# Entry
Amino acid sequence: MGKSKFIVSKSKILGQFQKLKQLGLEVSYSVKTFPEICQILEENTDSFFSIHMFQTLNFVKDMSRVWFIAQAWDKELLDKLFEKGIRNFVVDNEVDLETLLKYLEKKNTKVNLLLRMRLKEHTIYTGKYFVFGMYSHQINKLIPELRKNKSINKLGIHFHRKTQNTSEWNIKDEISEMLE
# Structure
């Protein structure tokens, strides 16, 4: 049996990217999905890159475009990320958030921080909330506190959609209903 091959269409990738930009969104491509696409996006768009593992940072040249997603991190990993120049972080739970905030107390630097929020999926396969992220009541409680933190430059919300069918997305309405 032969090896599977994927044929990547640069024009299709860039076309899909433009559809998302037209929705008024900042786009961050999940590197673990198909790392080879990073080069196309990095050279031709203003896309950010969502990275879950330190080892996959080598797929992106410009570390200012990386959003590193916390997953049970510690001081040693944060040291490595800061040495690489990463200052954009996504947290999906309060334990990882607390680890970052304690780390920042000892640093003289600012970071951009996104809180990952659970959104309800609207597909024929699922009508339930996505498993990762914080509930809106947690985020509504955290945002006023985090706004006062001098180590946080920009503060925002991150969400994830399992479907690539943007016609199923009613993002702006859904988020405005969930946030105070």
Q: What stands out?
A: The longest strand covers residues 152-158. The mean pLDDT is 86.
